[in-house]
Amino acid sequence: MKVENITVIGSGVMGQGIAYAAAVGGFHVQLYDIKRESMDHACQVIQRDLEEAVRRGKLTVQQADAAIGRLQLTEYFDESVKNADLVIEAVLELIDLKMDIFRRLDAICPSHTILATNTSTMSPTEIAAVTRRADRCVAMHFFNPVAKMKLVEIIRGMDTSDLTVAAVRAVAGQMGKETVEVNEFPGFVPGRISALVGNEAMYMLMEGVASREDIDKAIKLGLGYPMGPLELADLVGLDTRLRNLEYLHKTLGEKYRPCPLLTKYVKSGRLGKKSGRGIFEYDEFGQRLS
C-alpha cells in the first residue's frame, strides 16, 4: 500500500513535529486539533523549524516552501480524515482518550486507512480492540524533538498485519527516520530507559545530590547523552512524564514509582517548557532562562 495522505490528530509538541516530518517527507498532511489556537501555534513552530532547516542547509528555500504548501490545518475531525491513507494519533497519554479517538476514526475513515498511535507506553492491541480493523492498527512512536530525532519505534498489536508494518516502515523512511520493530510490552525500549533515568534524576534533585544544572551536565558529559534528563523532562512535559511513569508503575512495578517532587511540580502547574516553568524557567519563545 502506498501512503500519500497523512492526517495527524493533535497539534501539541509531538503532533506538530510529526506533521513537520511528514510535510518535509513529501506527504500531503492534514493537522487536526480541537483548539484553533493550538493549531495556530503549531503552524508558527513548523514555520520556525523550516526556517531553521534552511539556515542549517538541511533544506532549500524551495523545499521548505513546498513542505508548508503540503500542510493544511483543520478544526473539522471528519473532514480531516476522509481521504487519509494513514492517521497518526498524537494526543495525551490517556488510554481512554486514545481508544475513543480510534473508535471514531474506525467509523469514518476509508476501509484502507491505517490507524497509528504515537503512544510511548501503551498497548496498541488494547487501543486497536475498539476498531474493526485491528490488522491495520499499529503504534508509531516518534521521539521529541521529532524534527531532529531519527528514530521511530514500530510496535505491532496482536493482529497487526505484515502489510501494515511494511507501510508504516516505508512512511518513516520517507520522513528520513530509522525504524526498529519492538514486541508489545509496556514502555517499549527507549521509553522504559528514559523513564528510569529521568525519574532517578528527579530523586537526585529532591535529595539535594547536586544542582539541576550539574545533574544534567554530569549525565551529558559523563554518559554521552545529547540532552540532560531534567532538560528532557521539561521538553517532553512533566505532566506527560508523570502519566507515563504512573502507567509503567501500574504495569511493571515499584521501580517506576514517580518521584514525589515530579508529582509536586505537576500539581503546582510547573509542566515544563510549554508552561514557561518546570524544572527550569523559559521565556515566551521557549528559550531557557539562565
Spell out the key features of this protein:
290 residues; alpha/beta; N-(1-d-carboxylethyl)-l-norvaline Dehydrogenase, domain 2; eight-stranded mixed β-sheet; 48% helix; 13% strand; globular; 3-OHacyl-CoA_DH
Proportion in β-strands:
5-15%
Structural class: alpha/beta
Number of domains: 2
CATH homologous superfamily assignment of the largest domain: NAD(P)-binding Rossmann-like Domain
Q: What is the 3D shape?
A: globular
CATH C-level label of the largest domain: Alpha Beta
Instruction: Determine the CATH topology of the largest domain.
Output: Rossmann fold
**Which whole number gives the mean pLDDT?**
95
Corresponding CATH architecture of the largest domain:
3-Layer(aba) Sandwich
Q: The biggest beta sheet, please?
A: 8 strands, mixed
Extract low-pLDDT stretches.
none
What is the total tally of β strands?
8
Relative helix content: 40-55%
Number of helices: 12
The order of strands across the largest sheet is 3-2-1-4-5-6-7-8
Q: Please give the radius of gyration in angstroms.
A: 19 Å
N-to-C CA distance: 50 Å
> N-to-C SSE series?
EHEHHEHEHEHEEHEHHHHH
Describe this structure in words.
This protein is of the alpha/beta class and 290 residues long. The chain has two domains: 5-183, 3-Layer(aba) Sandwich (Rossmann fold), CATH 3.40.50.720; 189-275, N-(1-d-carboxylethyl)-l-norvaline Dehydrogenase, domain 2, CATH 1.10.1040. It has helices spanning 13-24, 36-55, 61-69, 77-81, 95-108, 124-128, 162-174, 190-207, 212-223, 229-236, 238-252, 260-267, and strands at residues 5-9, 28-32, 71-74, 86-89, 114-117, 137-142, 151-156, 178-182. Strands 3-2-1-4-5-6-7-8 form an eight-stranded mixed beta sheet, with helices on both faces. The N and C termini lie far apart (50 Å). The chain has twelve helices and eight strands.
